[in-house]
Task: structure prediction
Amino acid sequence: MCYTYQNVIHFLYINLQIEVAPIDVENEVEEQIHGGVTRFVRTAGEDYFRIPDPVSRMANLHEGLKDLTIKFLHLDPPLQITNGTRRERRTNGRGYRYALTSWKKFMKAARIKVRDQVHYSFDENEQVLSIERVVPYVNRSN
Result:
């Protein structure tokens, strides 16, 4: 069940098991847009990028690993690459989650640094993952 309060979509889940989120899912915002496009925000981790479960389902990664087309829309000019995916067993042993391969090379190509806030979208019809915007991390300890 979902409802909107103060222009924010809230989801109510019943019988939901909660796992502690790694850094790449910190501050995650997920939004379903009409036409099969899902937008989400992730904080870039150092070692990997886990694909959100709804996106991995839309990409049909449970049917078999495949390369994903990725567009770097935040770059000028925009760039398009193909990147592999990998599967890893969940820590609770129930099912799998999916991640992009060669994350450090991906970060270099996309000009992403650890802790940057990355705004993604996934188009289910086109099967394309896009980086729409990157907000650089600012160290506020000064």
Residues 103-110 form the longest helix (8 residues). The domain at 23-135 is CATH 2.40.330.10 (At1g16640 B3 domain). The helical segments are 53-58, 103-110.
